[in-house]
Amino acid sequence: MSDNGATTVTVGMAVSICINADSYGATVVEVSASGHRVGVRKDRAKRGGLHVVDDKGEIEVFTRRADGRYRKVGMKSGCFLHLGKRETRMDPHF
Question: Are the CB atoms for 36 and 64 separated by under 8 Å?
Fold first, then answer.
């Protein structure tokens, strides 16, 4: 799946919240009628690449921008969603 807006975002869809070189597995929990605004909740990462949906975590809101990417509300760059892939990865160089 791509980040260019061609993918229809649905509740329950796997996503990764990408922040610079790190990523956090998450699940879409809200989608506006237009699909322009989505709410996601970070999952709890387990060993071996497994993720557990966290029903009590904070909902983070992202909006689709002109470049087709979903970016976190209040940020112009640096934090976006990778659609269709749930992955938690920390850059060890920081």
Answer: yes
